[in-house]
Amino acid sequence: MVFILAAEVRAKCNIKNTVDTNISGFQEVIINVSDMGAALDIWQNIGGYKILCQNKPGKSLKALWGLSEQLELHQVLLRKANAERGFVRLVEIPDINQRHIRSSGMPWDTGGYFDLYVYVDDVNAVFHKLRQRGWQAYSDPINYTLMQFDITEVIMRGPNGEVLCLMQRNAPPYDQGFFGSSSGMGWPFNIALVVTDYEAHEEFFLKTLGWYLHINGSSLSPPPGFNPLGLPSNLARSLPRRFAAFAPSADDRTGSLQILSFEGLEGQRFEPFSDFPNLGIVAVRIPVDDLSALERSVMKTGYPIHSNTVSLFMEPYGEVSVLVLKAPNGARIEFFEPLG
Questions:
Q1: Do 72 and 137 reside in the same domain of the chain?
Q2: How many whole angstroms from its chain centre is CA 14?
Q3: 298 vs 308: CA distance, rounded Å
Q4: Are residues 131 and 86 in the same domain?
Q5: Residues whose CB falls within 8 Å of the CB of residue 302, separated by 6 or more in sequence, listed in order
Q6: Mean local confidence (pLDDT), 242-252
Q7: What is the reported pLDDT for 4?
Q8: Is 168 exposed, middle or buried (0-12, 13-18, 19+ CB in 10 A)?
Q9: Are residues 120 and 248 in the same domain?
Q10: How far apart are CA 236 and CA 132, in angstroms?
Q11: How far apart are CA 113 and CA 157, in angstroms?
């Protein structure tokens, strides 16, 4: 793997209309990995993604992430087909002590991001390819119905603790070309946060951020109780899981952040570890039109700001302003506004 050797250099990485005001929700997800080559093998050779940018970030980005400027970071930005959203940014931070954000985590453990949702055309094929590379699942692929959806799904955990929810959507029909899921893995359209305080997260998304509620409800697994989350069958039949998905737009749910709680179950708490330099799904990035207005709005609610607005160079968006918040469960959200 060859990386661009540059610090604050403006590398040749730009695509037209990368950030569009019609895009709602997260533009990209950041996954911190211990082996860039192995991670690229998954996303390129199984997922069918292409490299959009690769470089070594400069000191401004390191400072945003609370890292020493002496560290040599590598990052690679990938996308599926010609998608202008749902990018995956892989980051590798050599020569530093790290742990998994959700070390040996189970689905009902709280803190940070649990799993990233992608559509697939053939869930069994992707499941077997990932397992051949050492990924493990909480169950074999399971078929279920939820609301109007008929889904065959498997949830798989990789070597950095990153978790993918692979969804084969059998009904209703959807545009596979748009989601890039006719082969390999589509681009991410949803990400889940497992939470203990469900109401605090509702307030965060609806009142602090002013987002819209798209789906919500609770579910039980019908007899015999088999489920993609690996819950014991008797508990899956009797203990409800509450869920709700939020997005900045009332008309576009893609790029949503979803909260999930497991009633009657208690697990590990990973909130203190859900940031750089630890391994796994560490952040999402969300474009906004007016970052100053967002910052003022958040400050009026009294919600704490994790990192006040700073300006830096961020490929492929150019010069941007960035504001960082953390959800109540510690999940890192980077809001950015292109300045060019």
A1: no
A2: 22
A3: 11
A4: no
A5: none
A6: 96
A7: 30
A8: buried
A9: yes
A10: 28
A11: 12
Element housing 323 (H / E):
strand 318-326
What is the rounded distance in angstroms from the CA atom of residue 326 to the CA atom of residue 13? 29
Residue 15 lies in a domain: no
Q: Is residue 130 part of a domain?
A: yes
Q: Compute the distance between CA of residue 144 and CA of residue 252 in angstroms, rounded to an integer.
A: 24
Q: What is the pLDDT, as a whole number, of residue 18?
A: 56
pLDDT in tens, 254-272: 999 999 999 999 999 999 9
- Token output for 205: 């998304």
Using one digit for the tens of pLDDT, what is the confidence trace for 143-175? 999 889 999 999 999 999 999 999 999 999 999
Q: Do 286 and 204 share a structural domain?
A: no
Task: Give every CB contact of residue 300 below 8 A, 6+ residues apart in sequence.
Answer: none
CA dist., res. 274 & res. 65, Å (int): 12
Q: Report the alpha-carbon distance of residue 94 to residue 275 in Å, rounded.
A: 16
Residue that is written with structure tokens 């889904």 in the block = 151
User: With contact defined as beta carbons under 8 Å apart, do 160 and 38 qualify?
Assistant: no
CATH number of residue 254's parent domain? 3.10.180.10
Question: Structural domain of residue 215, as residue ranges?
Answer: 115-262
Task: Kindly report, residue by residue over 270-318, the tens digit of the pLDDT.
Answer: 999 999 999 999 999 999 999 999 999 999 999 999 999 999 999 999 9
Among candidate residues 262, 284, 316, the one where a domain is terminated: 262
pLDDT in tens, 44-99: 999 999 999 998 888 999 999 999 999 999 999 999 999 999 999 999 999 999 99
- Please indicate, yes or no, whether residues 93 and 160 belong to a single structural domain of this protein: no
Residues 135 and 223 in one domain: yes
- Count how many domains the chain has: 2
Q: Which of 68, 157, 159 is nearest to 113 (CA)?
A: 157
* Structural domain ending residue among the three candidates 198, 229, 262: 262
Rounded distance between C-alpha atoms, residue 107 and residue 337, angstroms: 33
Contact 132, 84 (CB under 8 A): no
